[in-house]
Amino acid sequence: MKVICIPLMRTNKIALILIVISLMASVMSCLWIGYGDDYRDNLTLEEAQELVTFPICIPAYLPSGIDPDPQIIYDSDAANVPEETYVRLRYKSIGDRKKVLEVYQAYTNDEGLKTEYPDAVLTSIYDGAKVSLVYWISDPGFFISSEKIDKTVRRLQLEAKVFQTDQIVWWLYEIVAPSDYRSTMTEWIQYQVKYRILSYLSAEEIEKVTVSMLDCSPR
Question: What is the block-wise mean pLDDT of the chain (219 residues), using blocks of 10 residues?
Fold first, then answer.
């Protein structure tokens, strides 16, 4: 497995302008988090599989203390549009039943992620990752204004790495400060399915969960 460390750029005036662009792009990120036109909860795996065009992938590894039976959610933002239809597997702790990680899966026309992007694109990617994680850790019933998101994104410290396992490129993002926003996210594309894991796990643990899903194949 090849690992490439990506240095984060200093925020400058141009980067701050790009934050606005990234926040507009984050609307798409929020589609992974929010509620669409057709929302169904507490489905069985078989029920969820009948609703999507791609095979649902289940992690082969989970850290101890996590219930292996996920809450399965189906969400569609436009009927009969595969790119806007996705499922998420919400895993909770065995003890307090709080969410620990969620695995999002959706069809995409893209073939895969890249190991390198132009600086301007990286800035947008990093800010988009921050926005996705902020929404994910926030109370789902609490509205977050764009002004608050912008202010929050500016103060977050993010670390990013890109990995290549066989032919699959996958990215790992970790908010390392402030402590109340500490969280991790990975994402990759395989067989025209986009995967995203958001979690409170350490970078080491979310890596293990991610690697356990990389050998999923079409049925």
Answer: 58 44 44 66 95 94 97 84 87 96 95 95 95 88 79 95 96 97 97 96 98 83
Q: Report whether 23 contacts 131 (CB < 8 A).
A: yes
**Residues 6+ away with beta carbon under 8 Å from 116:** none
Q: What is the pTM of this model?
A: 0.84
What is the three-class DSSP state of 93? strand
Long-range pairs of 119-124 with CB within 8 A, sequence gap ≥ 24? 119/9, 120/14, 120/18, 122/6, 122/9, 123/9, 123/15, 123/18, 123/19, 123/22, 124/18, 124/21, 124/22, 124/25
Residue among 35, 23, 4 at smallest CA distance from 160: 4
Nearest partner of 103 among 203, 217, 213, 215, judged by Cα: 213
End-to-end C-alpha distance for the chain, whole angstroms: 25
